[in-house]
Structures are given as structure tokens and as C-alpha cells.
């Protein structure tokens, strides 16, 4: 991966004052400030009183399952939609005002590339809208697309198109990029290359807000993680803080007793009707000690690590307080059924 500059101008701020866990903006320098934002589509509440501040130089991962509201939030920040309630600021201005979007790069979830244009022509075209774009050859090299410069975009693979889409978000040397699932459809090598490009951009002072379904992706890149589910921010913390919340162990055991209320059990499931139970706990050793000393009957004990993915699923599956105890998780709502675009 090239170490050549792809990021913001040398005058861009590079030392963020991060405030994980704090949402509404009190900072006049915030790149993004969403304050108590609600956005509905007909009867669907896509975002419910969401507040989020991103300071210069932060790399924030927005993590959540399908339909959580991630893309909707990015569309408000990029000025494509407006909130029904609350305010959104981009570089201190209204993102629907084009002047506020100078310095914004965006890779939407789906990108339409003109099929008959060559790769280099698309980069030239998009770069031509900016005062000091990254030279096309340099950008294509950085994204491993140099050999495809003369190929029509219609003849690119899905993964190659995705890389080009992310490259295009950086061509104008933005100060912030919004990346909506940047590595969807990429193989392992391409994903790593793209992560490198994002790290390089961030390392040079760029601000990044990226969405993903994948904890691994956010773990690989982000310093701060915002977990969103059903339009509600469930957690906003440093990466370490989030990982601590999801570091559960899984204890599989057979017992005639119901063990779901044993000390330290934060969640349990019955695996069959012969007493097999799956118990989630942050401290498996303590749970085993409790089982032994309490005299409760049990057998077939197994202890496994809960994968991060599993733990995250619990965190967003409705009762996040049991797992992660975020301070103030509002209740959940149903969110489906409308197709209205109430822009
Ligand atoms: N144009 C629209 N019309 C109607 N409903 C919409 C529209 N856009 C989004 N929604 C709904 O708003 C909710 C949030 O959608 P959004 O696309 O923001 O979620 P997401 O977290 O980005 O999901 P995914 O990870 O699947 O992309 C969903 O229930 C979705 O169906």
C-alpha cells in the first residue's frame, strides 16, 4: 500500500479530543454533530432521538444489524435527507447546504458507475470537481486498480467496483469520509487492502465514519464504536470499552434445575427438553464454583468463549442492558412495513 498522501490538507486538525460515550455536541470544532435526531419513513421510525458527535481525526465505527438506521444516519449527515426532529451539523453548517459538504467524501452502500466509462475516466471525472484532487494514477495504484485503468467499469467485478467506489470518496482529499459498508463483497485480500487505505487516510488526519454489520471490521479499524439498533444508540464507547462489554463466556451444562437465575448468569437458553442449558456469563470460573458449592445437580459441563459476533447479537437483540448495561437504552419499537420515502 502506498504511503503517498491521500488525506486531508496538512492544515487539517489531527488531534481529536474524543469523548466516547458523549453524544450531543458541545464542541464548535465537531466535524459531525447530530443532536436528538429523529427520522421516520411513514410509520417506520428509522432513527429515534439519536445524538452523535464526531471530532476531527476520529475513526468511528457505526455498528448495527440490518435496518438499524445506519444508512439513514449517514444520509442525514451527508445532506441527502433531513431529520424530522433534531439538528444535524456538518463542519458546523447545514449539510443540505452544498458549502457545508466541501470536504466531505462519501461511499454509499450501492454505487452506480457509468458502465461504458473507463476506470481512469471515472476517476478523472469525479476528481475534476475538486480543486486539488489526488492524481488518478496514484489513487488507482493505492487501491490496487492500476492495471484496470483502461477497463470499462461495466466489466469490473463487484469487489473491484467496491474498491473504486471507496477510492472515489477520497479523490478530492476530503476532511471526512462516510463509508457505508465499504468492504461488502470483497475477498480477504481486497478487504485488507481497503482497510490499509482507510488507515492511511486516517493516519494523515482524516476523519472517518464507517458503517458495518461486522464486529471484526469495526474492531480492525475503529477507535470508537457506536452501536445502533432499531434506530437507537445502544452504546457509544472506545473500542476497548465495547469489547469489554461483549466478553462473555458460554457455559453448557445439563441439570434438572433451572440455572438461569444463578449468580453471574446474564442470559440463558434451554437447548433441549432434557435439561441442557446454555448460560452466558462474564465469569465462567465463578459460575462453576457456584454450581459446585451450591450442591445443585449438574453434568456434561462445557465452557466455551462466546464469539464477539454472538455477544454483539445479544447486545442488539432487544435486551442490551443485560449484556452491556449501557446507561440509558430506550425501549425498542417495531420497524418495518413502510416503503415510503418521506424525504
Ligand atoms: N426510503 C425508505 N422508505 C421506507 N423505509 C425506509 C427507507 N429507508 C430506510 N427505511 C427503513 O428505515 C429503517 C432503517 O434503515 P437503514 O437503511 O437506515 O438501516 P441500516 O442500518 O443501514 O440497514 P442495513 O445494514 O441493512 O443497510 C429500516 O426499517 C428501513 O426499512
Q: Which bin fits the share of residues in helices? A: 25-40%
Low-confidence stretches: 1-26, 319-343
Helical element count? 10
Strand count, sense and barrel status of the largest sheet are:
6 strands, mixed
Under CATH, the homologous superfamily of the largest domain reads P-loop containing nucleotide triphosphate hydrolases
**Largest beta sheet: strand ordering:** 5-6-7-3-8-9
The number of domains: 2
User: Which CATH C-level class of the largest domain is it?
Assistant: Alpha Beta
Output the helix-strand order: EEEHEEHHHEHEHEEHEEEHEHH
Average pLDDT, to the nearest integer? 82
Indicate the overall shape. Answer: elongated
Say what the CATH topology of the largest domain is.
Rossmann fold
Classify the beta-strand content into a percent band: 15-25%
Radius of gyration from CA coordinates: 23 Å
Cofactors, ions, other ligands:
adenosine-5'-triphosphate
CATH architecture grouping of the largest domain: 3-Layer(aba) Sandwich
Task: Specify the structural class.
Answer: alpha/beta
Protein name: ABC transporter ATP-binding protein
GO biological process, one term: response to antibiotic
Organism: Cellulosimicrobium arenosum
Domain ABC transporter: 32-255
What does this structure look like?
This protein has 343 residues and is α/β, with parallel strands linked by helices. It folds into two domains: 32-243, P-loop containing nucleotide triphosphate hydrolases (Rossmann fold, 3-Layer(aba) Sandwich), CATH 3.40.50.300; 248-305, Alpha-Beta Plaits (2-Layer Sandwich). It is built from ten helices and 13 strands. A six-stranded mixed β-sheet has the order 5-6-7-3-8-9, sandwiched between helices. Strand 11 (267-270) and strand 12 (276-281) form a beta hairpin. The longest helix has 16 residues, at 188-203. Bound molecules: adenosine-5'-triphosphate. The site of adenosine-5'-triphosphate has 19 residues, from strand 2 and helix 1. Residues 41, 44, 46, 64, 66-72, 109, 213, 335-336, 338-341 line the site of adenosine-5'-triphosphate (ATP). Keywords: Antibiotic resistance, ATP-binding, Nucleotide-binding, Transport. This is ABC transporter ATP-binding protein. Residues 32-255 form the ABC transporter domain. Its main location: membrane.
Amino acid at each position: 500500500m502506498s504511503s503517498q498522501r491521500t488525506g486531508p490538507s496538512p492544515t487539517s486538525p489531527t488531534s481529536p479530543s474524543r469523548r466516547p460515550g458523549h453524544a450531543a455536541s458541545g464542541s464548535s470544532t465537531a466535524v459531525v454533530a447530530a443532536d436528538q435526531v429523529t427520522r421516520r419513513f411513514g410509520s417506520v421510525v428509522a432513527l429515534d432521538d439519536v445524538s452523535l458527535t464526531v471530532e476531527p481525526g476520529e475513526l468511528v465505527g457505526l455498528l448495527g444489524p440490518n435496518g438499524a438506521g445506519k444508512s439513514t444516519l449517514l444520509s442525514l449527515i451527508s445532506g441527502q435527507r433531513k431529520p424530522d426532529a433534531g439538528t444535524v451539523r456538518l463542519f458546523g453548517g447545514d449539510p443540505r447546504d452544498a458549502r457545508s459538504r466541501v470536504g466531505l467524501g462519501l461511499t454509499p452502500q450501492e454505487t452506480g458507475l457509468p458502465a461504458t466509462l473507463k476506470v481512469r475516466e471515472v476517476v478523472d471525472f469525479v476528481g475534476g470537481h475538486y480543486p486539488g484532487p489526488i492524481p488518478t494514477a496514484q489513487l488507482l495504484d493505492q487501491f490496487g486498480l492500476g492495471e484496470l485503468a483502461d477497463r470499462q467499469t461495466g466489466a469490473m467485478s463487484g469487489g473491484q467496483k467496491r474498491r473504486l467506489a471507496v477510492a472515489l470518496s477520497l479523490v478530492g482529499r476530503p476532511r471526512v469520509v462516510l463509508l457505508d459498508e465499504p468492504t461488502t463483497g470483497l475477498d480477504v485480500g481486497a478487504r485488507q487492502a481497503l482497510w490499509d487505505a482507510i488507515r492511511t487516510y486516517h493516519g494523515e488526519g482524516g476523519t472517518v465514519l464507517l458503517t458495518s454489520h461486522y464486529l471484526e471490521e469495526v474492531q480492525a479499524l475503529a477507535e470508537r464504536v457506536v452501536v445502533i439498533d432499531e434506530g437507537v444508540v445502544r452504546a457509544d464507547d472506545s473500542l476497548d470499552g465495547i469489547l469489554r462489554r461483549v466478553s462473555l463466556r458460554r457455559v453448557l451444562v445439563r441439570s434438572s434445575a433451572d440455572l438461569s437465575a444463578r449468580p453471574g448468569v446474564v442470559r440463558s437458553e434451554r437447548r433441549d427438553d432434557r435439561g441442557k442449558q446454555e448460560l452466558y456469563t462474564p465469569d465462567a470460573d465463578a459460575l462453576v464454583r457456584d454450581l459446585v458449592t451450591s450442591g445443585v445437580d449438574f453434568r456434561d459441563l462445557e465452557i466455551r468463549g462466546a464469539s464477539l459476533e454472538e455477544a454483539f447479537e445479544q447486545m442488539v437483540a432487544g435486551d442490551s442492558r443485560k449484556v452491556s448495561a449501557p446507561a440509558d437504552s430506550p425501549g425498542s419499537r417495531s420497524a418495518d412495513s413502510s416503503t415510503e420515502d418521506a424525504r
